[in-house]
Automatic annotation (TrEMBL):
It comes from Eptatretus burgeri. Transmembrane segments: none annotated. Signal peptide: none annotated. Keywords: Ubl conjugation pathway. This is NEDD8-activating enzyme E1 regulatory subunit.
Length: 618
């Protein structure tokens, strides 16, 4: 009976979390459910972010907030009601947020960040991630320093009138499962390992001797391999690389279609597949530049007993590439679908799978040997973790952020972002205003425009703070007057639509947007309510070969589903820009917790007026 109950609970969980399990898998969900997140302030931004952590099933959360609920809070926060006025804000928000998911544990602390840092500085040390919302500069810098020293990720989320701001602060964040778009299949046709070479040779013989029935069911992978062999014989061993050469290679494959006594070729689906896959299947097998860069990192070359699992596995992977791998990464072991007889396909699949297991075993041995040399147990890193590492070896990524103290120091400020122009760009202007209002708060104990009827004096005071910052940055220019007025006029208001974006209410199109080639367009763009499936077509490596009037040949349509929320039409992308789809706030926290997908590096500035955003490194 108890066993039946457990099975029912697991089935219910799989049904509830079905869509997210497709994104980050069972192991990602398990990591999420073991996490404990700290949210500073139950503001509109904080509760929107928290909602999007509780719904996917984060293990536990703690809200730190010593403020009481006011009428203004009730006006922009869906998790506070008029009955909450006068109560502690964290306590009031907690009551409604916990109703979203009974499996999530929640608590609150009725203390300020300053008090905790002063009396209990180690309070923040046991959290998986800390999220600071609507936190002024002075306590934010102290908190950032404390967490930086403990290697705990800090995500700063802020809504200030028309401005949305996200900043990730973490010394180092390694990503094994980066889930890149449009990955190439790991086929090794240019560098086949012995068992694959033997199978391809056997398949080539079958191709030459086959009757029409067998000829039309030989896997496209074998077809490409055979015609690639012929191409290399004719071209001094070189692969087709340019567009012209790849086009000629496709024509060579087409010439190999079955002829039944006439000069005309009979169409064969397996050959059509081979022609479609030819350009990408003959890409040279090599270690990606991003992984090469990781191999040359000091943390990889000088791995030791105190190194993280990521660096130990990378150290072993580098040793494998330099020895057993003959200069290339472990075989991924997966095989795309193709028209073929079951026996032929299964034989190919087995060859790739067995080679992948062989490579994993070699890397695992190197990891175990290294651990023993360092005086640690040989099984300190699990086989499952090593297997996952090898499978994603081509997609390893590392994010290293600059500390907040370095960003705020005029001597080490990011010159790449500031530039040396005589006028302030829109992005720099938003950042300048955000820093300036914090300085205003330090001087006057309130934000510009707050609790005043006439904002003109505050505009002058804010101008002085902004000018002081520009002088520290050695920028010979003046603050933008329109932004000074707007930031005084909004008077630190936390607009809910902006808070919802920053908190991660919906995935949206953000800017750091790159202008596309004029041949690329969005072909399918629509959304449906209430199930909210939002479809956009994204460009791929293939688009350069196709006219804009055709549908995307890769059928690369990404679908996002949201919880009965309305996606504003103003957030739909324009056809002039390449779309970068990421979630805000909560999605960044989930990336950090699951160690899947690459988080921002390191700041996103969102302009609610133009519905655009930019990713910058500060």
């Amino acid at each position: 009976m108890m066993e039946t109950t457990v099975h029912v609970q697991l089935a219910n969980k799989e049904q509830r979390y079905d869509r997210q399990l497709r994104l980050w898998g069972d192991h990602g969900q398990c990591t999420l459910e073991l996490a404990h997140v700290c949210i500073i302030h139950a503001s509109a931004t904080g509760t929107e972010l928290l909602k999007n952590l509780v719904l996917p099933g984060v293990g536990a959360f703690t809200i730190v907030d010593d403020k009481t609920v006011t009428g203004a809070d009730v006006g922009n926060n869906f998790f506070l009601t008029s009955d909450s006025i006068g109560k502690n804000r964290a306590q009031a928000a907690l009551e409604l947020i916990k109703e979203l998911n009974g499996d999530v544990s929640g608590s609150y602390i009725d203390k300020s960040v300053e008090e905790l840092l002063e009396r209990e500085p180690d309070f923040f040390h046991h959290f998986s991630v800390v999220v600071a919302t609507q936190l002024p500069e002075r306590p934010l810098l102290r908190l950032a320093e404390e967490l930086w020293n403990c290697q705990i990720p800090l995500l700063i989320c802020r809504t200030y009138g028309i401005l949305g701001y996200l900043r990730l602060v973490v010394p180092e964040h390694a990503v094994v499962e980066s889930h890149p778009d449009n990955t190439l299949d790991d086929l090794r046709l240019d560098k086949p390992f012995p068992r694959l070479a033997a199978l391809l040779s056997e398949g080539a013989s079958r191709l030459r001797l086959a009757d029409h029935q067998e000829h039309s069911h030989i896997p496209w992978l074998i077809i490409i391999a055979e015609f690639l062999r012929r191409w290399r014989v004719q071209h001094s061993g070189k692969l087709p690389s340019s567009y012209k050469e790849k086009d000629a290679f496709r024509k060579l494959i087409k010439e190999g279609m079955w002829k039944d006594g006439t000069s005309a070729h009979r169409t064969e689906e397996n050959f059509e597949e081979a022609i479609r896959h030819a350009a990408l299947a003959v890409m040279p097998t090599q270690v990606p530049p991003e992984v090469e860069k990781l191999f040359s990192d000091d943390c990889c070359e000088n791995a030791n007993a105190n190194s993280t699992n990521f660096w130990i596995c990378l150290h072993a992977l580098k040793g494998f590439v330099e020895n057993e791998g003959n200069g290339i990464l472990p075989v991924r072991g997966s095989l795309p679908d193709m028209i073929a007889e079951s026996a032929s396909y299964l034989a190919l699949q087995a060859v790739y799978r067995d080679k992948a297991m062989e490579d994993i075993a070699a890397v695992r041995k190197r990891v175990a040997d290294f651990l023993l040399q360092m005086g640690r147990p040989a099984d300190a890193i699990s086989e499952q973790e090593i297997r996952l590492f090898c499978k994603n070896a081509a997609f390893l990524r590392l994010v290293r952020c600059r500390s907040l103290a370095v960003e705020y120091d005029p001597k080490t400020v990011s010159r790449d972002f500031l530039g040396n122009e005589e006028s302030v760009s829109e992005d720099l202007g938003l950042y300048l205003m955000l820093r300036s209002v914090d300085r205003f708060f330090l001087q006057h104990g309130r934000f510009p425009g707050e609790h005043v009827e006439n904002i003109e004096p505050d505009v002058l005071l804010l101008h002085a703070e902004a000018s002081s910052l520009l002088q520290e940055w050695d920028l010979p220019t003046s603050p933008p007057q329109n932004m000074l007025v707007e930031f005084c006029r909004c008077a630190v208001s936390e607009l809910h639509p902006v808070a919802a974006f920053v908190g991660g209410k919906f995935a949206t199109i953000i800017g750091a947007l790159t202008v596309l080639c004029s041949l690329c367009t969005f072909i399918d763009m629509k959304y449906r309510s209430p199930t909210m499936q939002f479809h956009i077509t994204v460009c791929t490596i293939l688009c350069q070969n196709y006219d804009h009037s055709h549908f995307c040949p890769a059928k690369c349509v990404i679908c996002f589903s949201f919880l009965a929320e309305t996606l504003p039409s103003s957030l739909l992308p324009t056809p002039l820009y390449k779309n970068t789809v990421i979630g805000a706030g909560a999605q960044e926290v989930i990336k950090l917790l699951t160690k899947q997908f690459v988080p921002i590096d390191n700041t996103v500035l969102y302009n609610a007026v133009t519905q655009s955003a930019v990713t910058v490194r500060l």
